[in-house]
## 1
Amino acid sequence: MAEEIVGEARAWLNARRDELNARFRLAQRRYPRLDGALVLRHLSEILPPLAGKGDAGAGELLFAAYELILLQAGRGLLGEPKKLSAGSETFAGVLLRETFPKIRSLLLKRPRALMGALSNAAENLGERGVAFARALGAFGGDLEDADQLLDAGVVLAWRMGEPRLRSEAFIAGAKLPPRAALRALGLSGWPERAAELAFSALQADAWRTPEALFTPATLNGLAKRSAAEFGSLRKKLVEAPPEQPAAWRENAALGNFSGFGGAFDEPPLLLGDGRLGNRHRLWVLSTEGVYRIEADVFGWVCVPDPHVDLPVQEVKPRQSKLSALLKGKIDSPQLYPDGRLESVAYGVDLPQAAGAATFACGPGLLAFTHPESFRVRVLTPERTPL
Amino acid sequence: MAAALPPRDPRQLSSFPTTPKAVAAAKHEFDVADLYAGPAQTDAQAAASAGALPLDEKLRQAYFWIVNHAIISPYYDMEFNEANKAVRSFKFGGVGTEVQLPSDMSYSSFVLLPLLNFAARKRALFIGGPGRGKTASAILLGLIAGYSLHDIRRAVQHGQPQMTIADLLGNPLPKALVQADEMEDIKIAWRKWIGMRVKIVDEYNRIPTRTQSALLTLMGDGYAEILGQTIESPESAWFLTANDDMGGGTYQVIEALKDRIDIVIKALNFNPRFLGDLLVRVEERVKPEAIVPPEIIFTPGELDQAYQQILKVPIAREIRRRIEFFAAQFDFCDLAAQDLEYKSKDTIRLAGKTLSSVCANDCGRDKVKCLCSQTENGLSVRALLTILTFSKTLAWFRGSPEVTLQDLRQVIPWILHEKLVPNPTSPFFDQAQNGIYRIDRIAWIRKAFDAACDEFVRLDLDRNDPVRDMDEIFDRGLEGVPEKDVRKQLNAIETQLANLAKNTKLYAHVQSDVVKLKYYHQRYNNYLRWLTWQKK
């Protein structure tokens, strides 16, 4: 039995009773299992916190919420009323029950557009949808308008592992107030001045975790730095990764390569033709075909890319210099079975890469696979925090 | 599904789906907007999903409603054929006219092209004699865009010799004109049609030249200006009509305005075998413009969404190469200049000469076969952009996942109808069987496209494209490419140029290849110099 709805929400339901009932019947035709009693219980939980005190736009907000409740309840994505637990919560349930009341003032400006868009975004993020929905709620006090909410969503989605949003996230991040920008990057404890630095650093090298950019002392002293000191710090941060680093660190293990249109039968093989042009894009071959991996420090995405025609870049034993010269490959970086990476300019021993089967190499990046692993491992230069 | 109506009822819509074939999904490229798209409705989605009918299907239903009930146009002149299916044809006596029965769904250009123009937000010109339904067609498109008949009729601009800029665009408010201290203070009462998504200019060749210039700014640049005040026009579909486009109007149409017209639509004559349909209209007092079914009316949100979908229809490299090859044929003239870059018909025109006079000299080519001799000019960037947009729109309309060669073949003649100027002295037109092409421009341009495709196949350029590998390598970017690879590429370019110079004449398509190879050579060379400087 649903709790009795009181206050503004009750008045609104009464005022639009016929129309809302018609909407429910329409939804029930689309989702025959939509249960009226269950919907009433959801409404009694969700609508009162969103109703406010009769402020302008509240009716539209409640209507958008009502529509979303019908949609997600019909699809079985709203979870159980009042039985939220870590195991059973859904992105839609978290959004409607926790997040939307916290960002209500922003939603009032464009309720239907924002609620729909945020619900879609949380759903598109799959397993990360619940975390995304919950994180959105924290932006309530940081943002000034509805557009900023969508911008914050872009940065947040990127940070939560959607690397295809990276370039858009830099544009969106620049439009956010510093406090919100830092929160979106998961750096809410940082001083506001650090926001610009963090985005600049990630733009220069998105294989660095923001947490590893600064020492605690630098971070604490950031507010007191002069403009010149700040500029010099920024200059160091945006330096390209070194071509010949003193040390490399394993930065990512990309995926187990199952679920992207079918599990891989065998470990993937990296494709390449010399050096990578883009440090965040790799191609792998599986028995299913060619896949493109978009990756950075925050996550990776793997999508089929059947139009690519690149050879497998195998790790092969050393050949004589004459033989290499004849094959025209002497200038391309080579990874050898013992883990040594060599090019004309330099050579470095990487024990982590010993026994690798295939590799791809770009400026300040080595990706490789092992014959017995379904993961692509990525090494990037070790950089000292400033 | 349309509601059941009696047979031949003019409100009847074609059943869904209008194209009974499985439509493969287009290859979906990542779009940042996808983050916020999904099953939950946002404002834009809400407007579009009212009937949950795909927008291309909705436009097809509009097509079939117009062709079946509104405009009697029994001409299926935009022919499509299924691959590997024999086409039945019949040859008639006289000059040997061949009639083909298309094996795939084909269309009437007089109805289809306006709809494509409507969806692609371009500028179309209806040409044809009086009473052929030019203005009526344009008005129907206005109704399909959601305007009332009253609003559309008020918005039609009727060209006439006394038409002033004020008639076309608006007037300064008399009170503001008297009281204003600054130009910025003068308020203009803009004409309502400027803000509409469908714009109709009837008999545009009767508009005085000065007013044509104001129309040009609005049509070409999307804004209007009076007394220093401007108003922006939304992206809209333009429909202009002319009884006689060959100079028969009251005023000569200025060239720039002609150049802004993207596509030409021919209003064909009435086929007397369909007099019965006319009789029904008279007896039943049927006025199609009064009974446009609400199911085929597009909201502004739907039009925006349809346009977005159209832009996403892919054009595969193989198809793009055909366009490139075809387009390369027309601007090139080996006799126009000494340097590779200036071997263009523009050089001839700028020198005050005509192609006829230059082309009369020998250049070692077969001037019956080479397309370059057939035109006085080449294709402008605007024409190429229009080809890309309309071919995408046609493919989208047909429910095709990507642009096909047939889409190009059908749409190109209508786009280039007023843009390619034939060279009447070309030996091509002197051939007995080609004389008809002096009159029938659609057939001429289609034949030229077919000839270009045949040549493309004969040269096996799908497999032996001299620039393809370099395109792919260059597309990966120069950043981080080591010196050795740069030198390798420079060497490959030089080898390719040597091969071309040795094995072929400088034909039009070869010239465009050579220009591109030279461009790549220069880019690599500059990069190499930078690399070398960095090492120092």
## 2
Amino acid sequence: MLKTLLTRARQGHRTIKYPDAAPPAMPAHFRGAPRIDASRCPDGCRECADACPTNAITISQRPTDSVLSTQYSALVSLDLGRCIFCPECENACPEEAIAFSDDYRLATRTRGDLVAGSAAHLELAAALDDKLRRLFGRSLKLRVVSAGDCNACAADVNVLSTIGWDIGRFGIQYVASPRHADGLVVMGPVTENMRLALKKTWEAISDPKIVIAVGACAISGGIYAGHPEQHDGAAGTVPVDMFIPGCPPHPLTILDGLLRLLGRIEDGTRA
Amino acid sequence: MAGELLLLRNAQPARLADVPLLSIPLFRTAILDAVWNEWRVSTLFGREADGHVELVVVMANDGAGQLGIARTRLAGDEFLSLTPECPQLHLFEREIAEQYGIRMTGHPWMKRVRFQQPLRLGASVFEGAPVAGVTDFFRVEGEEVHEVAVGPVHAGVIEPGHFRFQCHGERVFHLEIALGYQHRGLERALIGGPQKKTPYYLETVAGDTTIGHMLAYCHAVEGLSGARVPARAQALRGIALELERLANHTGDLGALSGDVAFLPTASYCGRIRGDYLNLSAELCGSRFGRGLLRPGGVLFNLTDDRIATLIERLDNATRDAVESIALLWSTPTVTERFENTGVIEPELAEEIGMVGVAARACGRAIDVRHDFPTGVYRFANVPVMTAHYGDVNSRASVRWLELERSADFVREQLQALPATPVRATVPPLAADTLVASLTEGWRGEICHVAITGSDGTLSRYKITDPSFHNWFGLALALRDGEISDFPLCNKSFNLSYCGHDL
């Protein structure tokens, strides 16, 4: 008993101060929101697109009119819903035109918002409407379903309920039954073998309800996209209200998304 | 004894033509003889060759550090099951039946494994299309006997699986586990590789074992290509593998503590696990080691100026972990729940081919790092930790003992990182060659077997996660126990669903 108390005293208070204070520093090689500077792209270069394992990068030519002639410059767009935040494109680029920043804020409300063009203008997730915020703003109970996730997304969703992150502070809790839940967190590409269970879980949650897709697999199928054993993400089975990219997303990325949805963080868009 | 097998070291390639192609009776005898002489089955799988189905076995002799490999070619679609004589093959034979449509005559419990489409087109021994969880379950009939069905979706943040208990009151007569819900078509997708997606498939076989599976893959490719990995890269890989072990063992001990409602250790370990994950992130930017290992070496170097900080953070985390976990052993309400719960006898562990932490908790001193060392483990010895009662307490204490050894290992490696490059070029893969590559992931033995075709691409890539060996152990651990002990037993094994389902 004494030992337990002594250990308690030594371990101290370890919950991060965020969002009231600055978030914890990201590790040295952390790969957050990518920055693309298409003006550096050499003519006809496709190195990044060819290297990308999930075909998240598309390169097209955009006409830039001048008085004398029409010239073309590259338009690079990166689909963050497919991106697995691997180092391939960064390593492949001969001109350092594409690089991952340490910006962990990535969650969006629509699938389309995840396609970042050269302008790298990402419409971060807006808060729920007033009615839903009144309902969920101070108490959001989530049912978490793994539908083919590799247990990495599950681990970093789960970690938010440990003392280091303590989402209970915001009234968010993972619950053991869909009947207790206000919403669903889906991870994994939605395997054929889990599709029915996912659908039934969603149906068992009473209205109004929300769905959050966590990780590249749940958004687009990730590297499993196109496999007949799965369904390219959650949206084909349940209606998704928020997308949190990553492979897996950093816990801070997930927390940022949840807080934005509840209207607790409101610094609009990222330049 | 094992005379028919081709003897190889871990990750040593062999030309396919040199792998003995035995007649079916000789193949059977070779396996049974070896098992009677202290060998165990690391993997047994099917592959297609010249329009026939071939079975390939990889046997392991832990004492001698030898792998024994043989194959046989089936004339038809039938094979006389070895399971009645060699129970550790039961799931492998079910897998071959499901993937290649081979009827395993005499198998006592022939059912689907993953509810997947066969790898061999049109070959199926099961009726109808596979529907996850729809199958006959073993049932106990009788007055006051009842059945409890759990899953696929579980109460926590955890992967899906279906558990069917036959109970008499609180007492569990029998537990049957049906998996396959996580099946993503991984092995099918690896055929024809390596392609640009291949490393990413391997990193997500089981996301909590990214390094373990990637290391097995890297050694396989390096074996097939003859690439020589620089010393610094080997050390960094070892550091990453042990950090993965530290994070997961810490997390598991915290979760075990939570399951017996001892919250101090549960809370502290939940955080400290994150400290170890963040150390992995310092190596490569990802808490799970994504993007770190590649054939030929590692993609990220650790510069010398960051080593001191890393050691300090490692020591802080380990000091906290040791202090928090030590509380378990001095709290009677914890030890009372841990001891004699979910007991597996050592003979049973051997008979059903258990590996890793769960096997070492039964006194089986097997550890790939020690018995089949590759990479940095050839130079740095990690002692094998065992316990002897095969219960939850033993599985917890093996983790506790390994945690300290792994921290020592990481510290020593960080203090003496060789000053070499971290990546070498990888020549093309040798054609018509086989390699079996074993690593000791935090759960236990990971076995990958790569076979190339005449064009030097992968014609078959077999993945055997330690969970594939151990799920049956969990089912047996519950026998005659109380159903309320299930969460605790389950946590003490903490097996992978996706690593099993592939």
